[in-house]
């Protein structure tokens, strides 16, 4: 019998005891808000809003978490309650993790030169939940970002720490069938996109106020702030703008190594998809690609980018 079963409700109570515990108090960001990071962010996102440039520039609000990130070297100081909680879950067999969603609230613009601090608290730990990925616990943290005494914004981040499902046949052996691919997070802001994908149509949002196209789907326009929009269907033509090759961590539903590309569509927006039809080590920036739709099972259809050129 696993530790998870033996612990039962007692284990859940141990996890619940972490609710309300601080994960960080007045921790400073590693860098001040600065123009180079804003520029890199905007280039990666294809965001040309003039509010992010010049002497009166502000940082894109969605960068809120970026100013708190620890980087490869991590934050200095003792291990905090959040790390203790994750270690406890790991030791109980809930070793896999997937980010499920985040929410941000913006109260004050951040500007180059601002020195931020942040407080982080473990807001909630769910009861044990069984999902298509496996059984585990949803952990939500809340981070309050400040400049001096002013609250600039709040970031809530939720993960699922889980033990992957291990199905067996009648003989007790695990089947050879490949596990199902993880499902995308579908919410009220992007449901129309995924409905289009199911019909093998890639829909791009278009602001009805200024005509600006945007992807991924957002509730408002980055260019004019308008909330009204319609859609245009992508032609399917594009090119590799950038890419990475995934080697680690292994996950049973995937076959690393494989290439994941940032694809610039002919319409001018960018999207992320796997690059197929060419060996992963032959993918190149600028390589022309064509949109395809791959059905992974009866429910899941995903857009991919197939290389259009022969590679020796």
Topology of helices and strands:
Elements: H1 3-16, E1 22-28, H2 35-45, H3 81-91, E2 96-106, E3 116-125, E4 129-130, E5 134-147, E6 150-164, H4 191-198, E7 203-207, E8 213-214, E9 229-233, E10 237-246, E11 258-265, E12 270-276, E13 288-295, E14 301-307
Parallel strand pairs: 12-14
Antiparallel strand pairs: 1-3, 2-6, 3-5, 4-5, 5-6, 7-8, 7-9, 10-11, 10-13, 11-12, 13-14
The structure class reads mainly beta
CATH topology of the largest domain: Thiol Ester Dehydrase, Chain A
* Radius of gyration (Å): 22 Å
H/E order of the elements?
A: HEHHEEEEEHEEEEEEEE
At the fourth CATH level, what is the homologous superfamily of the largest domain? Hotdog Thioesterase
Number of domains: 3
CATH architectural name of the largest domain? Roll
Low-confidence stretches: 1-7
Fraction of residues in helices?
A: 10-25%
CATH class call of the largest domain: Alpha Beta
Helix tally equals 4
Strand portion: 35-45%
Question: How many strand segments?
Answer: 14
- Dominant shape: globular
Taking the sheet with the most strands, its summary is: 6 strands, antiparallel
The average pLDDT score comes to: 88
Question: For the terminal residues, how far apart are their CA atoms?
Answer: 53 Å
